[in-house]
Design brief:
194 residues, mainly alpha, 10 helices, 71% helix, 0% strand
């Protein structure tokens, strides 16, 4: 589901893996047009994930996307197709977004423990009482950054808790706890019984 604030031009596309091989070879040989085609093919799906990880902040998502493609340009000569190009680029993008979130001071401040969860839960109740209807994207935006990251990576991207724990520098149990809490907050924000 795309949010109204998410650019309409950023819609997921499927890539032909055999064409990716040819594009990578051409880009490594210096063909900038081939690299531009890689960008145009893979950036929409990457942007959608980064946008969610960044809480709907388009500028942060765009920065993470650009960082990922800059890293990819430098690392492309060493790419061995152990995974698909899309998977590799996707991982670079997620890592760039997570690095930005880790660097963001609100990352720690918003994950202040149970007090932070209680205040966020009360905000959701006020929103419902005021008659505000939140869709899933807006509800994701309101989650604390670490909880949002765990939920997006686990439930949307299909990462395992060990991968998430490694990337977010937390214990596996913390990843599971963050996911449980994030799901509960989403249910509350969407008006379901928690």
């Amino acid at each position: 589901m795309l949010d109204a604030t998410m650019p309409a031009s950023r819609t997921p596309t499927e890539a032909d893996p055999t064409d990716d091989h040819a594009l990578v070879r051409a880009a490594v040989a210096g063909d900038v047009t081939a690299y531009e085609r890689i960008y145009r093919r893979h950036s929409p799906r990457m942007y959608a994930v980064l946008w969610r990880l960044c809480g709907g902040h388009a500028a942060r998502a765009e920065d993470a996307l650009q960082d990922a493609f800059m890293q990819a340009w430098r690392a492309l000569p060493g790419f061995r197709f152990d995974s698909s190009l899309g998977t590799w680029l996707h991982r670079l993008g997620v890592n760039a977004a997570l690095m930005e979130l880790r660097a963001n001071a609100t990352w720690q401040a918003c994950d202040a423990g149970e007090e932070g969860w209680d205040s966020l839960a009360s905000l959701a109740a006020v929103d419902r009482c005021a008659g505000t209807v939140m869709d899933l994207e807006r509800a994701l935006e309101t989650l604390p950054p670490r909880a949002r990251a765990v939920l997006v990576l686990h439930d949307i991207e299909g990462w395992k808790h060990q991968e998430i724990a490694d990337q977010l520098q937390m214990a596996v149990g913390s990843s599971k706890a963050q996911l449980h809490r994030a799901r509960g907050l989403l249910r509350a924000r969407l008006g379901e019984n928690a």
